[in-house]
Amino acid sequence: MTDTSFNFTPLLAPNLPAPGFKWGGQYPPYNFTGGHNAPEEVPVDDLIAAATRALTKDGVTLSTYFQASGFLGYLPLREFLVRKLKASAGMECTADEILLTSGSLQGIDLVNQILLEPGDTVIFEEATYAGCLSRYASAGVTPISIPLDTNSDGTGGMRMDKLEEALIACAQKGVRPKYIYVIPTVQNPTATIMSEARRRELIDLAAKYGVPIFEDECYSDLIWPNDNNEVERPPAIYAMDKSRSTIHIGSFSKSIAPALRVGYVVADWEVLAQMVGCKSDAGSPALDQMVLAEYCSEHFDAHVTKLNTAFKKRLDALVAALEENFGTAAEFTVPPGGMFLWIKLPAEVDTSVLAAKAMAAGISINAGADWSYEMEDASRYFRVCYANPSTQVIREGIAKLAEICSKEFGVPTRIANVESE
Ligand SMILES: Cc1ncc(COP(=O)(O)O)c(C=O)c1O
C-alpha cells in the first residue's frame, strides 16, 4: 500500500540501473558472499577509545566541510598511510598524493570517471571483482579479459603471455586501452599473490604499449605470516613502476571494517587533481577518518596480525568441511591470505543454478559467472567468503551445500563417507 498517488515513473531519467529493493538488514543464515569481517574481530573497545581521543583533539574541526585538512581528506590519516604504505608495500608517496575516499569503490568510480568514455577499451583479469564488471557494463566500454593462473604456492595472477597478445591485438587495431586493472596482492577471487618478477613484466609491457596500470590493493593486508611470524609480500606495482603510470587504490574495509567506508587512491598529483575535481561530494565522512587515524597509528599492525590468525582458522575450517563433504569433487588451491576461496566443481555442475538453489535454502555463494568475464569453465567455479561466518556456520553451511549440489547434479557422489542415492 502506498499513501501517495503521485506517479514518478514517467518523470524518471532514462537508462537508470535496476531499482534497489527494501531489505530488512538480514543476511542469510549461511552467508558466504561479500567481503564482510568477523564481528568479534572489529576492535570495538579500541575504536571507542580512539573516537574519544580523536574528538577531544580535533572535534571542533568538524565545523567546516574539509576541517583543516583540505580536499584530500583528514591529514593525520593520510600521514599514517604514507608510513604504512612505505613499510608494507615499499611505496614512496607524500600525503599530498593520497586522496581519501568513501570506500575504495569511490576510488574505482573516480578513476573510471576521469579515464573512461563509452567505446573505450579496458583490460582486466578474467575472474575479477564483480563491482568492476558491473561498472564496465554500464560504462559501455569494450572489455578485454586476460586469463589467470594459480600455482600451488599461491603465486599467480594475470598471465603476461596473454596480456602481451591482447596488447599486440589492440595495437594492430590502433586501439590504446585506457588501463590494465589488476588485483596483484590477494587477487579477488583467486587469492593469488603476483610475484615480483611478474609485476616487473607487467610494468614493462604496460610501458611498451603506453597503457597505465590500475592497481587494486584492497586485500593486501590479509596475508598469512610465515613460520617466523613475518609477512612477506612483493612491493606494490606503484612502488616498482618508476614511470609513475600506476594508479593505486586501497581500503580499510577488509583490515578494519567495511561499514566504515574509508578507502584511498594514491597517484601522481596531476592525475589525483583530476579526481579531486570530480569528487563532488563535499568530502568523505570525516569522523570515520579521524577515528581511524587515531586507532591505526597505535594498533594497526597488531590488529592485522590477530585478524589474519582468525581468518586463517576459518579458512582451515572451510578446507576441512570441503574435503569432508565434497571430497575430490571440489578443486582449489589453499590461498596465501585473504577472505575467500575460489572453488572448481565437476563439469556437470552449473554454479549459477547451484547458487540459486542454495539461496533458497539460506546459503549464499558467488557463482563463477558473476565473478568473471569470458572465462572458460566459469560455470564450474564459485567463491566462498569465509571471514564473517563462524567455524560452526562454515561446517554446517558447506555440509548443506554439498547435499544440495549432490541432489541437483549428482556430485559429490559421497558426502562425509556416505554414498548418495
Ligand atoms: C577487489 C575489490 N576492490 C574494491 C572493493 C571495494 O571495497 P570498499 O569500497 O569497501 O573499499 C572490493 C570489495 O569487495 C573488492 O573486492
Question: Notable features of this structure?
Answer:
Aspartate Aminotransferase, domain 1; 421 residues; alpha/beta; binds pyridoxal-5'-phosphate; Aspartate Aminotransferase, domain 2; seven-stranded mixed β-sheet; three-stranded antiparallel β-sheet
List the helices and strands and how they pair.
Blueprint: E1 30-31, H1 44-58, H2 75-89, E2 98-101, H3 103-115, E3 121-125, H4 130-139, E4 142-146, E5 148-150, E6 156-158, H5 160-172, E7 179-182, H6 196-208, E8 213-216, H7 237-240, E9 246-251, E10 263-266, H8 269-278, H9 286-326, E11 340-344, H10 351-360, E12 363-364, E13 366-367, E14 381-385, H11 391-409, E15 414-415, E16 418-419
Parallel strand pairs: 1-12, 3-4, 3-7, 7-8, 8-9
Antiparallel strand pairs: 2-10, 5-6, 9-10, 11-14, 13-14, 15-16
Describe this protein's structure.
The chain has 421 residues and is α/β, with parallel strands linked by helices. It folds into two domains: 25-42 and 302-409, Aspartate Aminotransferase, domain 1; 44-299, 3-Layer(aba) Sandwich (Aspartate Aminotransferase, domain 2), CATH 3.40.640. Helix content is 39%, strand content 14%. The protein has eleven helices and 16 strands. The chain has helices at 44-58, 75-89, 103-115, 130-139, 160-172, 196-208, 237-240, 269-278, 286-326, 351-360, 391-409; strands spanning 30-31, 98-101, 121-125, 142-146, 148-150, 156-158, 179-182, 213-216, 246-251, 263-266, 340-344, 363-364, 366-367, 381-385, 414-415, 418-419. The chain has a seven-stranded mixed β-sheet with strand order 2-10-9-8-7-3-4, sandwiched between helices. Strand 7, helix 6 (196-208) and strand 8 (213-216) form a beta-alpha-beta unit. The chain is globular. The mean pLDDT is 95. Bound molecules: pyridoxal-5'-phosphate. Pyridoxal-5'-phosphate binds at residues 35, 103-105, 129, 131, 183, 188, 216, 218, 251, 253, 258, 263. Pyridoxal-5'-phosphate binds next to helix 3.
